[in-house]
Amino acid sequence: DQALLEVTDLKKHFPIKSGIIQKTTGYTKALDGLSIKVNKGETFGIVGESGCGKSTAGRTIIRLYEPTSGQIIFKGKDITNLSERKLRKVIRKEIQMIFQDPIASLNPRKTLHKTLVEPLKTHNLYASKREQTNKVKEILEVVGLNASFINRYPHEFSGGQRQRIGIARALLLQPNLIIADEPVSALDVSIQAQIINLIQELQKEFNLTYIFISHDLSVVRYICDRVAVMYLGRMMEVAAKQTLFEEPLHPYTQALMSAVPVLRKKGGQQRERIVLKGDMPSPANPPKGCVFHTRCFKAMPICKEMTPQFKEVKKDHHIACHLY
Length: 324
Ligand code: SF4
Ligand code: MG
Known about the structure:
transport, P-loop_NTPase, 8-stranded mixed beta sheet, 26% strand, alpha/beta, binds magnesium ion, binds iron/sulfur cluster, globular, Peptide/nickel transport system ATP-binding protein/oligopeptide transport system ATP-binding protein
């Protein structure tokens, strides 16, 4: 069908090194089996508590991290093992990333002009310097900044402006897919709304597809079409946004959602708050069976023994849980 991106059982394990000779003594299973299909034009959310592997997911999909195993198909092409050179040619233009702290990735000694022309040069876009400069000015205005800002330095901008710069940089090469990793988490609430609206407007204007990574469920509820819930490197549930927020099936999702204020529910009842016991275990030593069993309020004996399959239990509603 119209999947722009198809990820199958993607894993990223980081070696744990110790001792003088830095021997590998184990692995942190930061991402341990991500399977998602992202359709053209949608905003696909990835949510979960910090440390659940959602950032690793984003960075592995875009091949900033080398995958340990699994497969990434983008526009029908297998990009899992493409060399950096081929990646640059084929993919680096078409998939871009927006980060939580855009300024950390901007060189403080370079003007916006210098920083933003660089990718255009790398990809041999726009023949003359003048055209490149004009392109940068145009993009600045597209994201709501003044073209005259082009000669300023990163520290001269506010938080919201910096994120607009991050977005401008992502847009420069006219990508199809943008992976946004907590793009508004560092901003004041009033600025968050502006940036979220900008992200949505740009989607329409440029036919963008987004993967939106966030721990903030109210932002996700506002912007996403479908959502994947992750826990300890794995997927717990994937469903359409409304289904996920109103009828979550997985106990972990139910716990997450119980903390979100209900807007309007039949009978006007507030959901009962489900407080999970304990902390998330270490991804270096995940529990056997269902990785959530140590904190699950519905755990059964089988949950300690067998890993539940990730399967479709209702139309377009997937979960990994022995209850279903
Ligand atoms: Fe809970 Fe068992 Fe389902 Fe895991 S498989 S979420 S432990 S009921
Ligand atoms: Mg993160």
